[in-house]
Amino acid sequence: MTKWYLAALLALGGCSSDPAPVISQYNMTVTTDAAVNASENNSANPVVVRLYQLTDVQLFKQLPFIDLYSQDIDLLSANLVSKQVLPVVLPSSETQHVLDINKTTQYIAVLVEFVDYQNSVAKAFSTLPTEEEQYLQLTIEGAKASLDVVTPESSWWQVF
């Protein structure tokens, strides 16, 4: 009798569906201008971008750049799902990235490491795209970073 119960459990286990995926993939474009991260010696310099997956963005908004720069994981731990550092971003460039976003993530935030961080807009954040064709756009111009959800323009012939 025990063998039959075991066989029935194994058969039922084989019929179960796959679990829901833990991650979703989103596209992100990073665009910089020719004057990104200017310093006294150079008209432009590469930047490092830290990307955070957060459940809440309030603490990220409140923390000063230098605190995030030196102890981001400790300070954001209550809301931090994941952190990654993107490859170095060069001036006058456009790069594409595919992000693996955890299902618990509500916000994407970035910290751009500018030379003159005190006179920059180094932090930006956004909610996740809600439509399949949308993507994230990180724009870095001079010493200012902005992160937006972009909906591509649809062509008129796609209406038919």
From TrEMBL:
Pfam families: T6SS-SciN (PF12790). Keywords: Signal. Residues 1-20 form the signal peptide. PANTHER family: OUTER MEMBRANE LIPOPROTEIN, OUTER MEMBRANE LIPOPROTEIN-RELATED. This is Type VI secretion lipoprotein/VasD. It comes from Vibrio sinaloensis DSM 21326.
